[in-house]
TrEMBL record:
Pathway: Amino-acid biosynthesis; L-histidine biosynthesis; L-histidine from 5-phospho-alpha-D-ribose 1-diphosphate: step 9/9. It comes from Sphingorhabdus lacus. This is Histidinol dehydrogenase. The active site is at E326 (proton acceptor), H327 (proton acceptor). It comes from the Bacteria. The gene is hisD.
Amino acid sequence: MRRLDSSTKGFAEAFDVLVNDRRETDSDVSSIVEQTIRNVRARGDVTLLEMTRRFDGFDLNKEGWQVDASTCRAAFDGLAPDLRDALNLAAKRIEAYHKAQLPKDRDYTDKAGVRLGARWSAVDAAGVYVPGGRAAYPSSVLMNAIPAKVAGVERLVMVTPTPGGEVNPTVMAAAHLAGVDEIWRVGGAQAIAALAYGTDRIRPVDVITGPGNAWVAEAKRQLYGVVGIDMVAGPSEIVVVADAKNKAEWIAADLLSQAEHDPTSQSILFTDNAAFADKVALAVDAQIAGLATGAVAKQSWSANGAIIVVKNLEDAMPLVNRLAAEHLELAVDDDRAEALFDLVRHAGSVFLGRMTPEAIGDYIAGPNHVLPTGRRARFSSGLSVLDFMKRTSFIALDAQSIKAIGPAAATLADAEGLPAHAASVRKRL
Ligand SMILES: NC(=O)c1ccc[n+]([C@@H]2O[C@H](COP(=O)([O-])OP(=O)(O)OC[C@H]3O[C@@H](n4cnc5c(N)ncnc54)[C@H](O)[C@@H]3O)[C@@H](O)[C@H]2O)c1
Ligand SMILES: N[C@H](CO)Cc1c[nH]c[nH+]1
Ligand SMILES: [Zn+2]
């Protein structure tokens, strides 16, 4: 863990290093992914078979390539009642939040008599990546699949690794609940490439969404253009802005909640009190020791964690904006949280006040937990129904309205030296 103090010499340089640290996209990852994509294009299912054997440790031909609908239904029926209730509640809240995102078509006639507008429609087929290497993510099934179904996607394909050949029943139960149509037991960059280009077994999709580790995120980035993607959602991150009125144990748990995802995850605390910073650092170490995920959390905290002491929390906000973190907690009194929130320009999702831990957003609040990482909240947003939709504009003229705006079009075509364009308008005037 790095400990920085904004009042010391050399802070600006040390903070630059933190901001510019590209911890998930070293050249190694990107060249491995390039090669994987090439292999999937050339050898399709054979590459999937080999890579699944190598990374997930089982034989797709023996254990099955897909999980069928009846297995998912049985998994749902077999859930413990409290888990089923929790999944149902999460699904309802996610659905309600995302239904409200549905865009409206436009259709109107302007003053020149020209009819204009746009219609929204869903993509035909979407692929959702559900991570499954280190942990199973039923919550990510809901977060990806429900917005796709709300958008009206007809063919919804899920890919997820099943390490050791173990199919996670809660993931499959969530797929049943969310209405996933096809499930393939492949993961990593190879699964993304299969969805983008298709293989003999897997038909290609139009859009791929979902989070994943560095290889998955890089594959989506490289395949953008062949398919649509939501954004680059890689290893999890959290920035917590906290004053000394917090309980150090709560803040330590919040930092660890994202550190436990992946050794390349990042957790950063800003505080205006050095003694509180010490307490949180001790609490993190104490809690790591008791976590089943302690080994991963420790790697993440040691390599990428930071505690930054600032003069006051308002001064921290420009620094917070430069980090553009996936998650930002403002753990201060409610009115101060609002004031700090007004200073936030770049963050994937913001958690306001002391009683709003980020983990609530991971599971149950309603907004999507698939969010941009790696400083990409500067230019992209969390997953929404719009990622599964596209907008088609339309224009309708009649004999009157073409007279109103046609001559200007022909003049512009002349100026561009495109006579066929000009003629196609003038012939109608
Ligand atoms: N940003 C978000 O919205 C969000 C949400 C949930 C999870 N996450 C992140 O998703 C990630 C999940 O990662 P995971 O590893 O548990 O599961 P994963 O499914 O993303 O990755 C597992 C796959 O990675 C591939 N892989 C593993 N080691 C490899 C190597 N050395 N070379 C090439 N490929 C390799 C394998 O094919 C394996 O099946 C975490 O980083 C977590 O932080 C992000
Ligand atoms: N924090 C992750 C997004 O970075 C989402 C998640 C799912 N389950 C637990 N957490
Ligand atoms: Zn999480």
